[in-house]
Amino acid sequence: MNLKQVHLPKDAMLSASFTLMDTSEEQVFLYLENHGLRSPFGNLYISDANARVFSLSMENVIKGNAVDFERVTSLDGTFIANRYDDGHTHDASFNKKFFGKEFSEQDMIAEDDRKSRMSRSSNSNSLNKKQEETKL
Which of 4, 24, 37, 103 has the CA that lies 20 to 30 A from 51? Predict the structure, then answer.
């Protein structure tokens, strides 16, 4: 087998954890957890047609139990992903109006930790539809 090297942008921080998100459109979407192990965010990269050279597609993509990334099957080449907005590009009054407060990255990390503790302490082994589909 002849292994070929891939190339990521120079500012892409490699991590031990990555997720291959999609390969259906003759390109590869790769999610890297490159904001640190405790961060619920990572970056999404897209490859060229040869799946060898990657460029940044979206920063701060949210990951809870799974990366928040979906392929829209009815529209070729269309994907949906949720990303964390650090407050620089929207009206901060939105969060106050609908949620009563603004959320920071630390708030999201704390909530993710809380949910993780609750799921570990639960005796339930039930999986949702998406988890069943991706279960190995």
Answer: 37
